[in-house]
Amino acid sequence: MVRTQFTGVPGVHHLTFESLCLGRSSQSIAAGLLCFWDSLNFNKDSEFMGITVFFLDEKVNLIHGIIPAGCANHYRLSLKAGSIVKVICFEVARCSSMYKITNHPFLICFIPPTIIDEVITGAPEINLQS
Questions:
Q1: What distance, in Å, lies between the first and last C-alpha atoms of the chain?
Q2: pTM of the prediction?
Q3: What is the pLDDT of residues 90-124, one digit of tens each?
């Protein structure tokens, strides 16, 4: 498990995407929030399924995440494309080939205890233009 310490912020750690472990846990990531959009099921009269997000870590690994419809309103105001965020307490699941939109084998699933905050100081260096 590789942990990286935020520069200048003692004791605040996060995982790179290559070190994520399957399951629910208190893992944390620091990443660039590249973009997000509402996910709709066009087979069910455009039913709102949740919010899909793209995260980029400092090693230029891309992973996607899903915020389920039931949690979407709680997290929507915390999402800011182009920001560096810290995400804590989420589930890591295998990404089905049917829904795979990045090369990463896992996806991040927001669950009720998930916390997402913009990192203002001490963030890892992430090139959001990659």
A1: 25
A2: 0.83
A3: 999 998 877 778 888 899 999 999 999 998 777 77
